[in-house]
Specification:
Radius of gyration: 56 Å
Helix content: 25-40%
Strand content: 15-25%
Mean pLDDT: 80
Order of helices and strands: HHHEHHEEEEEEH
Structural class: alpha+beta
Length: 275
């Protein structure tokens, strides 16, 4: 056989000394698995980093997975148990059926069965209060209880023809009134009666109560008004009530704010003459 050529010498590293490095101490080889894994870690980590620690399972992820699996398993078991039970019947609905009269109702007979409103007949002037002592007449208005025609009532407004037509078409029957003046304060008390078919025209205007059993009320203005024919101002207060087909109305026209106590007292006095 031809002779084996010798191994060429390793070239020297620049800057290195000529001293021969000491040989590494002899180490016992470990098990095959440990040496191979440790060597692989050294190779992957590189010369400047430490070897990686072995991977371990994350406890938080395992807990979440176990919780989700438990919830799903519990829901499935509950659904299976509920599905195996017989259905519970619902209670019957309690609905009141509409009731109808057995016979056809006669409107006239039904109206006759209702309580009739108080009937006020006779002379309305006798039901009005009288002007107090010390008072005087208020212009051409009557200072004693007197009848008022539909024409006389219409003339007090700006459009007399329209007011006359409205009164005639609203079931106006008759009216009585008394007016007086005292201490520059004007008073007017009137009773207006309508036909039974137009009893709604006698409804009173809502307001503050002036009597316990009166179905009306009173109110006073806080701002002055003006007379239609002059620039003079006045304060207004009124009270109304209904008694059957008759509407009672008390009005006060004053150069200063109306005294509510005076208005209530006069309205209560007139109401007591109707009941």
């Amino acid at each position: 056989m031809p002779p084996v050529p010798p191994v060429p010498p390793v070239p020297p590293v620049p800057g290195a000394t000529a001293e021969t490095p000491e040989p590494a101490p002899h180490q016992e080889p470990s098990a095959a698995g440990e040496s191979d894994g440790y060597a692989a870690d050294l190779l992957s980590a590189g010369p400047e980093s430490a070897p990686r620690a072995p991977r371990r399972p994350r406890p938080v992820l395992l807990s979440v997975c176990a919780l989700v699996v438990g919830v799903l398993a519990g829901g499935g078991v509950g659904y299976a148990i509920q599905a195996g039970r017989p259905p519970t019947p619902l209670p019957p609905l309690q609905v009141a059926l509409p009731a109808y009269p057995a016979e056809v109702v006669d409107p006239a007979a039904l109206a006759a069965e209702q309580p009739a409103p108080p009937v006020i007949e006779g002379d309305l002037r006798k039901l009005l209060v009288s002007a107090p002592s010390g008072s005087g007449a208020w212009g051409d208005y009557p200072d004693a209880p007197s009848w008022m025609s539909i024409g006389e009532l219409a003339e007090r407004k700006g459009d007399a023809a329209l007011i006359f037509k409205d009164l005639a078409s609203s079931g106006f029957r008759r009216a009585a009134e008394v007016d007086w003046m005292k201490d520059d304060i004007r008073y007017r008390v009137s009773l207006t009666q309508y036909t039974p078919e137009h009893i709604d025209q006698a409804e009173a205007t809502p307001g503050m109560p002036f009597a316990g059993d009166a179905n009306g009320g009173y109110s006073v203005d806080f701002l002055p008004r003006k007379w239609s024919d002059t620039e003079d101002q006045y304060y207004y207060g009124h009270a109304t009530a209904q008694r059957g087909t008759v509407q009672m109305k008390v009005e006060i026209f004053s150069p200063k704010p109306v005294d509510a106590g005076d208005l209530k007292a006069l309205a209560k006095q007139q109401w007591e003459r109707l009941v």
